[in-house]
Amino acid sequence: MPVQKNEPKMPTAAKQDRKPWKKKSPIEIVLEQGEKLKAEIAEMEKELSAKKRQLQKFEEVRKVFES
Question: What's the whole-number mean pLDDT along residues 11-32?
């Protein structure tokens, strides 16, 4: 006899909570992508500055060890 599996079904209420899809114009798409890139660049710059500070600390420690 085949074993029946109880597969969890998605509740229908979850489907109703979603926002209706709204078509965007090409201008809106380009502007949105530009904003995403700006945010990504800002995050990368933060990470880079943190790594530069870390490198500076390592350089200071290296100077202490060399002397």
Answer: 83
- How many Cα neighbours within 13 Å face the side chain of 10? 6
Q: What angle do CA 22, 31, 21 make, to 5 degrees?
A: 10
CB 32 within 8 A of CB 24: yes
DSSP state string for the chain: -PPPP-PPPPPHHHHHTSPPP-PPPHHHHHHHHHHHHHHHHHHHHHHHHHHHHHHHHHHHHHHHHH-
Domains of the chain, by residue range, sit at 25-66
> Which pLDDT band holds residue 14 (cuts at 50, 70, 90)?
low
